[in-house]
Amino acid sequence: MSEIDSRKVVLCWEYEGSEEVDVETPWADYLGNDQYQLKNFPFYYYGLSYDDIFEAKPIHEDDDRPYLTKIIKKSGHKTVRIIFEESIKESDKGIKILDAVAEMGCGYEGNGASFFVINIQPHCDFWKVCNYLTDNGVNWEHADPTYEEIWPDENT
Description:
Layout (H helix, E strand, L loop, with lengths): L5 E3 L2 E4 L6 E4 L2 E6 L2 E4 L14 E5 L9 E7 L4 E6 L9 H11 L3 E5 L3 E6 L5 H10 L3 E6 L2 H4 L6
Antiparallel strand pairs: 1-4, 2-3, 4-5, 5-6, 6-7, 8-10, 8-11, 9-10
């Protein structure tokens, strides 16, 4: 049995009409031939979810890290992000919401006590999770699929 070759990859998200760039360096399993399988939940990158397979290569002369260049195969996982008005340290409302999402079969990871990424596994009911968040007044967004991918006609 071979050992898994996990590596840090670079994901850069540039915002349209802005010079702002979000950069994150999640873990991914190296599959060979510049292909990787994501093993973290993306906090800033849109259109990529846990277990997706993508191509990544060094693209800068002074940086040998692999940068995502294209997505090859979607895993069926979906990603939404939530921001609580009050941190989970100040209020138990957020904990109750995270517990309910976990009971629906989703995983989550936090960046601080207010910002969380929810991984909606392929067997989970995507719309049930989204509706639950909306019905409970949670500030959330589609990350993968993006809002524009779900409702393309609303952006014309």
